[in-house]
Structure formats: structure tokens, C-alpha cells
Design a protein that fits this description.
Layout (H helix, E strand, L loop, with lengths): L11 H13 L2 H38 L2 H6 L3 E2 L6 E2 L2 H32 L2 H12 L6 H21 L9 H25 L3 H9 L4 H12 L1 H17 L2 H7 L16 H9 L8 H31 L5
Helix pairs in contact: 2-13, 4-7, 4-10, 6-7, 6-11, 7-10, 7-11, 8-9, 10-13, 12-13
Length: 318
């Protein structure tokens, strides 16, 4: 028998009946739920339309270009005779910039996250973290011209030699790309590390662990899911970046991972053709969607692989 003055805990059918009654008496709440449902529906419909558009235009491209040429050819010259539509030069151009930018940004970003999470004084963290995140607000066109005029002309050429560094090269684009994604890796990773329960740290300290051991053996594994999410965000931004690679990396599709070479990425090609004179319905125009579909497939596979890795290595902490 319930005690007078106390609230009875409802379960099962009673709870459902009370919730339905509250729902009928809360028109404003119904409006909010309807708005949220509409937002979710718009997002889902937009995604479906994007995928259908890519699929339709990509199908038109492969009606004129055999799939085996797209996959196995090693040249990409869609606007020159003889025409070649091998996707690998654009893929390697994208991987070139992605590889070198992540090699520079990943260790710096994780080191900054560990310092902010485990070593920095709270007042220092409140100052440094907004300053670091401000780098993410710089327009990419500013980064692009900084790479072309400062990084290449004033840094790489004087150090490595005028004859070894062309005006357009993957290294300058990778350097400024690393600066651009550094706040993403550092900030998201630091948030994940800061959310690790304090009890885990105190338990490790009680067993005699040093601060560095706590950071790498306790905090880092516990925050692995958030760290992988930070890396994925950075990778997605590098792969999808257009202006920096279009201005600084050049427009020479070739299979190479040499950072001193001029390359063309998938997004750089899409921008070049999109701003050109290619008429709708031509093979040059539909090739944009074929490249975009390839980029979509690579990004989707990367997200699936990351989800599998997170589920495999994620540790549960009570």
C-alpha cells in the first residue's frame, strides 16, 4: 500500500497510460516532437536524394566509359586525346595529401590533447583551448594562399632548393592542412579524455603509476572511442577539402606519394571541371559524379571500419 504523501513508481501499462495522458495535455510538447521529426525526415530525404543523384549520373558515366577502364587504367586524362579515365591518379593524389597531413597533425594533436587533459592547469586550459580552436575558424582560402605564397616560396624552397620544390606541390598543401585539422584532433580528443572518470586516475595513482603512465595506459584506452572519432573527423575534412588542394597542390594527376610532386586530388578535379566549360550530359560532366561516388564509397568504408575498430577495442568502465 503506498505511503501517503509519496509518489508511486509506475511501471508497465500504468506508466504507458500516464504518459499518453500527459501527451494529450501537452500541445506544445507535441509541436516540439513534430518539429524534431520533420528535421530528421528532411535529413533522411536529403541523403537519399544525394545518393540517387550520384547513382544516376554515375550510371550515365559508365554507359560511356567501361568500368574496367575506370578501375584498372593508370592514367587520368579526360580532356586530352587519347582520353583515359583511370581513377587511381586522383586516388593517390588524395592519399598523398592525407598521408602527410595526418603524419604531421596526429602526433601534435594527441600530444596537445594529453597536455590539456592531464598536465595543464585549469586556467591555462581555459586560455589555450579557445586559442587552439580558433585555427578551425580560419577560411580555407586563406590557408590555400598561405600555402602557395608563404610555405612554398619562403619555407620549402629556401630549405629544400628551388629546383626540387615546384610552385604547386603536395607538401605545402599537407602542411597547412595539418594546421587546419590540428584543432579538431586536439579538441575532440581532449573532450574524450576529460570525460574519463576521475576514479580511474586515482586508482592508477594509488597503485604507484606516474602521470605519463596514467595518461597512456588508463586515460588513452578509456577515451579510445572519442579519439578515433576525432581522427575520423580530421580524415573526413582532409578528404573533402577542396580549396587548399586546388590552389596549392596543383592539377597534375599522377600515381605518387612523393610530397614534393604536383598532384591532383578527387575534390580538386571536381572543382576544376565544375568551374570549366563542360556541358551537362557530356562524359566530362558525368565524370564529376563518378569521382564523387568513388569518394563517397571510400568515406563510407572508412566509417564502417572505424566503427568496427571502436566496437572491438572499446573498454567498458562502470
Amino acid at each position: 500500500m503506498p505511503i501517503p504523501g509519496t509518489r508511486t513508481q509506475l511501471r508497465g501499462a500504468d506508466l504507458e497510460r500516464v504518459m499518453r495522458k500527459r501527451w494529450s495535455k501537452a500541445p506544445f510538447e507535441r509541436l516540439i516532437v513534430l518539429s524534431l521529426w520533420l528535421c530528421g525526415t528532411v535529413s533522411m530525404v536529403t541523403t537519399i536524394l544525394i545518393v540517387l543523384t550520384l547513382a544516376e549520373e554515375t550510371r550515365a558515366f559508365f554507359m560511356e566509359v567501361p568500368l574496367k577502364d575506370f578501375i584498372f587504367d593508370t592514367k587520368w586524362t579526360p580532356q586530352f586525346e587519347p582520353t583515359h579515365f583511370g581513377i587511381w591518379p586522383l586516388v593517390f593524389g588524395t592519399l598523398n595529401v592525407l598521408l602527410w597531413s595526418m603524419l604531421m597533425a596526429l602526433p601534435l594533436g594527441l600530444a596537445a590533447a594529453i597536455y590539456l587533459s592531464e598536465y595543464a592547469h585549469p586556467n591555462t586550459r581555459r586560455i589555450l583551448k579557445p586559442m587552439l580552436e580558433a585555427l578551425a575558424g580560419v577560411p580555407t582560402v586563406v590557408y590555400a594562399f598561405f600555402a602557395l605564397t608563404v610555405v612554398t616560396q619562403d619555407i620549402l624552397r629556401p630549405i629544400l632548393g628551388q629546383d626540387r620544390v615546384p610552385i604547386f606541390n603536395a607538401l605545402s598543401a599537407s602542411i597547412v592542412m595539418a594546421v587546419m585539422i590540428l584543432p579538431t584532433i586536439a579538441s575532440v580528443s581532449e573532450d574524450a579524455m576529460s570525460n574519463v572518470p576521475r576514479d580511474l586516475r586515482e586508482g592508477a595513482y594509488g597503485l604507484g603509476a606516474t602521470r605519463l603512465e596514467v595518461a597512456f595506459r588508463v586515460v588513452f584506452p578509456a577515451a579510445l572511442g572519442g579519439i578515433i572519432a576525432a581522427v575520423l573527423l580530421a580524415v573526413a575534412r582532409v578528404i573533402g577539402e577542396t580549396m587548399i588542394v586546388a590552389v596549392a597542390a596543383g592539377s597534375t594527376p599522377q600515381i605518387t606519394l612523393n610530397p614534393l610532386n604536383s598532384v591532383q586530388t578527387m575534390t580538386g578535379y571536381m572543382l576544376a571541371i565544375g568551374l570549366g566549360d563542360s556541358a551537362r550530359g557530356t562524359v566530362d560532366y558525368t565524370s564529376i559524379f563518378a569521382v564523387g561516388s568513388t569518394l563517397f564509397v571510400f568515406t563510407f568504408c572508412a566509417n564502417v571500419a572505424a566503427s568496427i575498430i571502436v566496437k572491438k577495442f572499446k573498454e567498458q568502465y562502470e
